[in-house]
Structures
1.
Amino acid sequence: MSPLVLPLPGNEALAAKLGATIRGDVGELTVRRFPDGESYVRLRSSPQGRAVVVVASMDRPDPKFIPLLLVLETARELGARSVGLVSPYLCYMRQDRRFQEGEAISARVFPRLIARSLDWLVTVDPHLHRITDLSEVYPVPARVVHAAPVVAAWIAKEVQRPLLIGPDSESEQWVVDVARHAGAPFVILEKVRRGDRDVEISVPDVTRWREHTPVLVDDIISTGRTMVETLGHVRRAGMRAAVCVGVHGLFAPRALEELRAAGAATLVTCDSVTHTTNEIDLSAALAAATLEMLGPTKPA
Amino acid sequence: MSPLVLPLPGNEALAAKLGATIRGDVGELTVRRFPDGESYVRLRSSPQGRAVVVVASMDRPDPKFIPLLLVLETARELGARSVGLVSPYLCYMRQDRRFQEGEAISARVFPRLIARSLDWLVTVDPHLHRITDLSEVYPVPARVVHAAPVVAAWIAKEVQRPLLIGPDSESEQWVVDVARHAGAPFVILEKVRRGDRDVEISVPDVTRWREHTPVLVDDIISTGRTMVETLGHVRRAGMRAAVCVGVHGLFAPRALEELRAAGAATLVTCDSVTHTTNEIDLSAALAAATLEMLGPTKPA
């Protein structure tokens, strides 16, 4: 039987593209809240004997977690042959150690909690830093889709003489990868983080790149502060109007307005988190990874 | 070492009373949200070698679940001798079977998900219907605190010539118990539920009770529709102004206003869910149950 693709609310568009590519059926799922704030979940398509592919991007994860677990667990109860999760944005990858005594290391706790309900996982560029591979924290088979080639293809097609700019050393590996795929030069800035919303940037000399279009790339746009700072430096350096590219556009409150105000005339994101700035389609790459997980080598 | 009591935000008042009664230390816990919507958790008091008592009422549970799990799991990682949960209102007890094909039976799934992080559980009058005992769904030791004696004591002290009125057959067992403890007569109405917010009530003849004060008691006040309907019948039957008592006051949006408008002049709840109507103090009963769980018979 063909795989059953079940999108959580907000993931319908991506699930439709993914479903078409993997030749799956996109099933119907009801998720709503009772007046007392609890979630109601109903699978309107039977998962009996089928490989189930749940599609749920986990930006702003806390209110989504119980509904997601109810879907995963109910699919299994109702006889799914396997239950996998395509989560283009995977949450809780950022706190990967105790910076202060007593802190929860959510990047290690969360994977344990969700993996119990999963046979496999597909995601896009998780925010790996001190954790170098998803298998260090996820005890189930996992495939990471790299957005770099897709982002690079978009840049190569849409931007004239791009100069890639990575906002900090954390982004370096990723920006280098995009630059290589796009055949473009790059520079990496240095970021000093003082708090959730307090960030300062230092910029190397970019005068030799004045004829290029600066392309600011980052894996996550959350508060947008890093990109706002970088836009300021690029403008003060006398460079052309910048293009901003984020893989995961989380956009905390006011972030989009502040980015526009800072001069982000062109601001695009991948469709891993549904947003008006989505321009870069990851569905083909996600479908390829999903087919790998559903293939003959998957766990029975 | 004395037990370490850790209240999640909103549970500080109950935790203070509980902590004093069980001779525990109320510890400090930081729970906040990052700008991207993820939760940050830090235990500012060390759980090393101690029995940890987390206090977290689970009304409106979905956004609270990940922070709670981060607290429970981090307490264990940091060397807690045992990790228990006092959850005066326990969520997801209401959907206890598939009314329609494909529905998630959250009353069976949720206990599995949270019990993995617990050594024991204490709660107050869970909404048991088809599930007759908490041990059917919770695979860890659990104590249920019965609010009936405490509610009955409040009624006996505060209400002259009470007539207890249960809104439906689901409430019967509970109302009978309160009536017995209060030494008061009671009647049980019949409820027909047509949807989340659509409820109709039939009332037996109450003319012989005209000299009594009707006391409407229910385990959960959520939309308040049941109690609003019942208040209407009581008023039309020519009875005195009613006193409304709920164990768990969830109060969905507009519920309180609608209850006031329907004539609920006196409306009180237990402190299992923090609310302005809290009048009935369950902390002594919760402390007794907690001490039982922490006693020599608890799991090592």
Note: Chain A has eight helices and 16 strands.
2.
Amino acid sequence: MYRVIQYLKLGEVEMVENVIIIGSGPAGYAAAIYAARNDLDPILIRGLQAGGQLMLTSFVENYPGFESILGPDLMEKMSQHSKKFLSPNKIIDNDVTSVDLNSFPYKVHVEDKVYETYSLIIASGASAKWLGLENEKRLIGKGVSGCAVCDAFFFKNKSVVVVGGGDSAMEDAGYLAKFAKDVIIIHRRDKFRASSIMQDRVFSNPKIKVIWDTVVEDVLGTDHVEGVKLKNVKTGEEKIMPTQGLFIAIGHYPNTDMFKGQLQIDELGYIVTHDSVKTSKEGVFAAGDVQDRRYKQAVIAAGWGAMAAIEATKFLEEKKIVK
Amino acid sequence: MYRVIQYLKLGEVEMVENVIIIGSGPAGYAAAIYAARNDLDPILIRGLQAGGQLMLTSFVENYPGFESILGPDLMEKMSQHSKKFLSPNKIIDNDVTSVDLNSFPYKVHVEDKVYETYSLIIASGASAKWLGLENEKRLIGKGVSGCAVCDAFFFKNKSVVVVGGGDSAMEDAGYLAKFAKDVIIIHRRDKFRASSIMQDRVFSNPKIKVIWDTVVEDVLGTDHVEGVKLKNVKTGEEKIMPTQGLFIAIGHYPNTDMFKGQLQIDELGYIVTHDSVKTSKEGVFAAGDVQDRRYKQAVIAAGWGAMAAIEATKFLEEKKIVK
């Protein structure tokens, strides 16, 4: 676990970590719990905002074992759970600046500090996508939001628009309907891809209406959102709709920028894995939404995190780095 | 969801299920929760003994979100969780007698009742292995046990032997040491494959000793276990060791007998899967220890269960069986 560096003075050793885990969603915490219990004394780099995407959700009802729990509460439980096994000084609440996977041991930079490690578990997750409109960017925090749970309260008795058609759009609409006067979901297709139970909740909520086959072409307003310009993708018809809030729930992109050129990454930006969690580099594993094009579920991410820690352990044993 | 059968009288319909889930470990419950939340109204066949292998463990400390929970308590939480979404009449506490996967819809027999289903999730798990000795079989329940948690209490202040080298052998030894006078682990190799943390607990427990490179060749005793015959696999040396209990913890075999000849199964009896949970038959999915040669962890099984339900939903949508 320690490697003596030639150019250091006698007696000095530079420490090389067994494993560094990047991320603190379900995959990161699961990996941390498993790696620590396998005596790898891992470093867990949680980032400036620990907890992953579940921090931005309300009730989670599909993580087996918890009938209904607030996303942030579940993540707090996982955080506490990981602290039971991790060394306190090995939890880093800062962002990774860059990684170097072109020489072994690998290097992970966190601001001006460099960590060397024999293996790496990437569980850096995904972030919310935006529409990519100039006025959308300009009005973020002024009526445009990527987080209904964070901001719904500010739209009490106001009219809001949600863009999207997946589970998170349904959840956002339902959550917003508790506060807002009315909620309109704008969806570019004629059908949601959300799960039936989430769709049912939306359709049975009298405060929520849906506009199908429609995209948001522009966001209107100077200091705050005043309306959206809509276009029907089938008829081409355009219209202005007044609204005070615009919530974007059109999906996520994997947080893989710093790995580009160093690992195999697919055309959508996901880390390519084989055997569940192995990447194109030996000793580098990826778990959770950073490599998951298909499922994006907390318990599945946690399962992959556990797998990554088990595979990292096997890798370190095979390399005779740990016994 | 309903298929009218030609030969039935007018107005009669025979119901074909969307999905049947076999098993009630973490994979089965996760599949049930996800399938029910996707509006598939699944049947969950839990078996006569619901709960899977965690029913036979003591503390689980690696299911993310629960720092420390008794195996049976975790399974009770998952059971309650599944009941929140399942139809009460669709939970079947009986064993599957046989399945017929050679015609579609598939058929699942439970005693004299036949269920037809468009898709099937196999989460039937694994069962404890035995040494395969005649006297071992004869003395089961008379000192020979496959479940330390179930039977440890009966060995208060007695000497017991545990056979195995994995996590469950370590756990069994630790659990037995709370009751027994002394515990001897017999392992056929010179190293455990158990995780470090589990090994550490064993090595630091003064009541537990290990005999390496040794196998149990016979079990001695007429009405109850009185000793074991040991053989050192390196030296060939044989000896008799008195003991009052023999706990077998040498692993598990997947419960796949009823699928043999109907699905692709590997040489160790595991269901062969591709894309994580897909079997050799369309619409038939396998999740958890029944297809897992490598990990055998609760959270990983739960992740696979969730995947299987999501894949079953996609399959039923593609086949236009559900919208």
Note: Chain B touches chain A at residues 26, 29-30, 33-34, 37-39, 61-67, 74, 77-78, 80-81, 84, 195-197, 200, 276, 294-295, 297, 299-307, 310, 313 (CB under 8 Å).
3.
Amino acid sequence: MSNVNWIERGEIAKQWVLEAAEHIKKALASKIHVEAKSNPDDLVTDVDRSTEAFFYEKVSTHFPSHHFLGEEGISENVEQMDGTVWIIDPIDGTMNFVHSQFKFAISLAVYHEGIGKIGIIYDVMAGELFQAIEGQGAFLNGKPVQKITERPLEESILGLNARWIVEDRNPYRRELAQLVRDVRGIRSYGSAALELAYVASNRLDGYISVKLSPWDYAAGIIILKETGCCVTNFNGESLSLLKGGSVFAGKPAFHKEVIKRYVGRER
Amino acid sequence: MSNVNWIERGEIAKQWVLEAAEHIKKALASKIHVEAKSNPDDLVTDVDRSTEAFFYEKVSTHFPSHHFLGEEGISENVEQMDGTVWIIDPIDGTMNFVHSQFKFAISLAVYHEGIGKIGIIYDVMAGELFQAIEGQGAFLNGKPVQKITERPLEESILGLNARWIVEDRNPYRRELAQLVRDVRGIRSYGSAALELAYVASNRLDGYISVKLSPWDYAAGIIILKETGCCVTNFNGESLSLLKGGSVFAGKPAFHKEVIKRYVGRER
């Protein structure tokens, strides 16, 4: 396994993503069946499920020894990150998908022995494909992403869902409210995967969320690393791919300052 | 003036918008000069100014009797809405433009004797052109926009800038915080003009702002009207095109409920 060609494998993964996107676009022409999962706002559709099954079929046929972890419940032997693991969110931003068929993404990551090898985030309707292979840089539709440029915190634009600053049970409510006051602007696109890709491509200076799951950020981690951005939990620790939690991605100086002054354990 | 062909004039306006967008995209290749206006986060660039001048030159040459109101200070005799008035925001979402060259728009409106005749909102980088001519419907890149579908308030997605719910001096802070708790999702794209276009095209159920200026919403009003959406101030009154204030656009039932329960005078 030491001489795997990850660039070639990345090309295969990209073709699968584009193929899945065509299925999704076709499905939009017919009626989509929507269900709630853990709460009334946590949605899943038959298209999420069929897209996950599509990827599982591809991976298990072409790479029978690989493991698979998908948002919609297909999980194969993923209690640790040994071997090669595919982590897939078939439709990240399902609420956007259901409401408006706008700003949702396929997120696909491949890890080998715990190391991120391939990350792809695809905005299906906008046709924007963000991709990184370990050590090869990050690309948007085949061109290097815009280089990140640092700005002082008070001139930064942060991706953050306004829900976090009104929910009393959120332990970071006050800290995030202060951060919202201190930065220059707040954006919210409704797809964590895309917002991580936007940090990597200089569209946002940071993106913060109190709770995400591994399939939301598995690909983002790999793309962010290639652009020199940082992504950790609120204490500045590496993210787990086996269980979710807080996530903060940002340009290095902004990332350091927000953890130190707002959300980190030592603040 | 009673037999003006507004469809033909809308076509001319659209060509100017596309031409202006080409200038803006070219300008992105060179260094952009940024200044702050009323406060450090209220930005203007030489590209905003040159784009406004481009439109003023076009309008004053082709329609010398028309009036003109632009965000960046070109105003010709607009103390009332008599005659034909062009209201233009050359770059709506200047912060996005400066930071990331992503999600900014040209907003162009033509009013005749106070009646909205032509509205155009163009997302320059995404190439999405929203357009309406009075009585002719609303279009996205030449095709009718997605028909609006009503949802209950608790399933709605609202465009709202999180800044409004952390600023103590905002008199609607509590009401908007409660609204954020009650709806299904919050989005923020950083361009009021685009967010109004997104309400008109079923991507958002509503968009709310405590303070906007006429050039931010002049085109949005015309596009929203063609799709059956409502847009008023927080008391449900028609918006002024001569001075700014609160703005709430939404699908009819959602609009009515939010004004009644959250932000209207009679709440």
Note: The interface with chain B takes residues 40-41, 95-96, 99-103, 126, 146, 151, 154, 157, 160-163, 165-167, 177-178, 180-181, 184-190, 198, 202-205 of chain A (CB under 8 Å).
4.
Amino acid sequence: MQKILILGAGLSASSLIKYLLDRSEEYQWKIRIGDLSLETAQRKINNHPHGEAFLFDVSNLEQCNAEVAQADIVVSMLPASMHFSVAKACVEYGKNMVTASYVSKEIQGLQEQALEKNNIILNEMGVDPGIDHMSAMKVIDRLKSQGAEIIEFYSATGGLVAPKYDNNPWNYKFTWNPRNVVLAGQGTSMYIKNGLYKYIPYHKLFQRLLRTNILNYGEFEMYPNRDSLKYREIYGLANIPSMYRGTIRRPGFSRAWNVFVQLGCTDDTFIIEDSENMTNRQFINSFLKYETNISVEDKLAKYLGIAEDSEIMYRLRWLGVFENTPISLARATPAQILQHILLKKWVLAEDDKDMIVMQHRFVAKMEGKTQEILSSMVVEGSDQTHTAMSKTVGYPVAIATKMILTGQIKARGVKLPIDSCIYEPILSELETLGISFIEEEREI
Amino acid sequence: MQKILILGAGLSASSLIKYLLDRSEEYQWKIRIGDLSLETAQRKINNHPHGEAFLFDVSNLEQCNAEVAQADIVVSMLPASMHFSVAKACVEYGKNMVTASYVSKEIQGLQEQALEKNNIILNEMGVDPGIDHMSAMKVIDRLKSQGAEIIEFYSATGGLVAPKYDNNPWNYKFTWNPRNVVLAGQGTSMYIKNGLYKYIPYHKLFQRLLRTNILNYGEFEMYPNRDSLKYREIYGLANIPSMYRGTIRRPGFSRAWNVFVQLGCTDDTFIIEDSENMTNRQFINSFLKYETNISVEDKLAKYLGIAEDSEIMYRLRWLGVFENTPISLARATPAQILQHILLKKWVLAEDDKDMIVMQHRFVAKMEGKTQEILSSMVVEGSDQTHTAMSKTVGYPVAIATKMILTGQIKARGVKLPIDSCIYEPILSELETLGISFIEEEREI
């Protein structure tokens, strides 16, 4: 029996674990699942005879090494910062590894050791990063093989709520780590457009929007995502004049979110004085000028140049940020307080389903014509466990794990899924699981 | 002979060195001055028989320890980050020390050792921090002794150019470290007004201005300076309802500077691609949207909501930021490029003189009345060496050094100049050197 070691059994691991357990009899796998909560690991296994739960603490190096030593392959679904100690154990004991996270410099540094041991450390196998790379490379490789010159590549992804359950004025609910949503976009975003580099500081990001239509799901907006420039090399498009990666939201979200950015409410670097005795309204007021005889609402609208009866103000009021609700969080940063307020409103209801949308837009010159190619994916969640996020993150990881075990993926070293020998079979199987791309093409 | 060790002989040390050399015969001091440039140290000594220059490298711990061991008192005018290794040597060898920089947590941590060795490590003895503390505490202690309740305290300082030489549209020239000017205000500024905490993110800082008049020097504006809250405790004003510390500029400076902040030109965290082949105009354009058929000037004005014929645009044009001047700086951050552009324009001419302005504003309740007390200082530079900055930083350091050597300052431990036994004699002597405060008082 081949032994699969899965580290981390949180929400994002549900579909991954189910996929592997469902096939464990056929492939004769034994699946050991470790989590800081034994109960979480047990619940995910649900008494499956091929599964085995154990209490796992990544900071216990001895345990980490012992577990890795006994496995045939290791799947790390731990928080991104914890992958490295697992990866080190993997190259030490000559084990293959799969993660859904961005490859870190430290893990990249294991390249030689991994090759020496004939291992693969396969990173960025989730949805974004993961499915985005695979589906983009499929189109890029095809266009190149057709002799096309790719002159524009836009790629964007969003985790949203499925249309049927999309019933709040933000058209948004938390379907993933709320902290990451509150902190999203901090730093400088950079991309290139017609050969000109463009840099956008955080405080301008949510005003620099593009619009798109995705299949029959209607209108979306997007804002650029940190460093789009480095993907030119990764995707083999070193000289492309336009390259942009973005985050997708429903229209209107970003300009309303921008209010929190402008005020400073997303700052995670300092503690608000006496936060435990503050109300939502006082929190907002602490970022506004001291002025009496004017309401906090009017002051905010005036400060940011927003009409008092605008959609933006309506979205803010709906969140309750102007209410005198006690915050009751001691020694909290602005970002923590904002997250606390949002968690009450942007919550998925029991029967709500999430949705992942992704769209690539290419412009390519070929045989004297200029073609626009859209490649779009929409995945809706099946239920609260097998969410769109859990499926799109977990299935590619699971399929890659299977294909490494069966020898179908033969690549070695520290890898991203950008080679056709990896992405082709995985994208094919994802289609059978309801994760597929629809292409639209037109001459422009 | 008592031995004074001065480490660092840069611009800020000129007046300090002259003050001590001028009195070295009278007090029988031997003054050893170390700098990374032997020539700089020699120039400052100018063959004075009591002075001795040597090549000093603070990273050479052995040299640092040997020099400190031979001294009676150490004056560190090194960059702030380098004080700690000097301070450690001082407490090890039982030597007194004076610096003009903010006390760091590491230096604060030497308190017990300093007391054991009966040493004083006297920090924040320059102008800001330094003269600001001393002159503020003088008024605070007097008001308290009169039974007054201080309900507001505003304190602000600015390094500017003297009126006669103030001949550019920014009313500003570099009189101090240009890098610090470009990066000024990054982070969050916080103060308290009538009991309400106020937080201002960097991207709003240069739009949240106050105005003031200083003596017969006319109008100035100010913006708040990082953490004003912690000074409540330092100044013994724990429960004061309004406390604000700011930076002073001439009116109009901040709103024009804000353009660079809004664009992202002051960011020091990433490298601009291909910066060596860029022009000023392309640099500015890289922060603006991609739009053809509209000039960079119009695009900027539209993006930031500024009238094309406004004072702000005039100030920007005057700087040459829209010109096709090559930048010729390889692998530079936006902040480095901006500094490079500004250095050509905000330069002090040969005969220009600088100016330091400082103003405290107190509101105090006393015997049923509410009094406003303004305490203001303006110091102009004497020449390009004995600038206002050099005098206001150097004289308090020099006087404190003298008073520790003569036993007039008896305080021990890690100290700021907030005790009357330190600030009283120093402020008195500063008056004889032309550094004095004028008080204005009125009932409000």
Note: Chain A has three domains: 2-123, 131-251+351-386, 271-332.
